[in-house]
Amino acid sequence: MQSYGEMASGPGKRAAFPAMKRGFLGRCPQCGEGRLFASFAKSVEACAVCGEDMHHHRADDMPAYLVIFVVGHLVVAAYMGVEFMVEWTPFQHMALWLPVTALLSIALLQPLKGAVIGLQWAWRMHGFGDGEPDHGHDS
């Protein structure tokens, strides 16, 4: 029995959630062993363990959009909770929420980019398809 988010087992099928989890953890979406990133936001050309090419991913702006969505919801909810419990000046709020927003954004950018790369690998998008037609690319 397959779990939610997995494709049916068979030749060439790839499960999306395990690939996204591996990418989120900074590992190769195929083998889960090799590093996915050469530096903070630059992916490796290919996995050093299994040899899977990573150079053709197209994460583009999606990780940044996800960071804005997640951090925005977390910070606004926390801000509203603090505002409800204590009465702070605008400067006190700025002194707390600006660094929290910046740190959360930096902390989540690489994991979310890895998850996007893992999803593209699982869905065989942008060159991850082993010679199949490129799904998700207009050219």
Please describe what this structure looks like.
With 139 residues, the protein is an all-alpha fold. It has one domain. Helix content is 47%, strand content 0%. The protein has 3 helices and no strands.
Q: What's the arrangement of secondary structure elements?
A:
Blueprint (H helix, E strand, L loop, with lengths): L15 H9 L37 H24 L4 H33 L17
Helix pairs in contact: 1-3, 2-3
State which percent range the strand residues make up.
under 5%
Which spans of ≥5 residues are poorly predicted at pLDDT below 50?
Answer: 1-10
| Total DSSP E strands | 0
The average pLDDT score comes to: 87
The profile of the biggest β sheet is:
none
Integer count of domains: 1
The value of Rg in angstroms is 19 Å
Treating each run of at least 4 consecutive H or I residues as one helix, how many helices?
A: 3
Order of SSEs: HHH
Separation, N- and C-terminal Cα atoms = 37 Å
Principal-axis shape equals elongated
Helix content: 40-55%
Provide the structure class: mainly alpha
Summarize the structure.
The chain has three helices and no strands.
Features:
disordered N terminus; mainly alpha; 139 residues; elongated
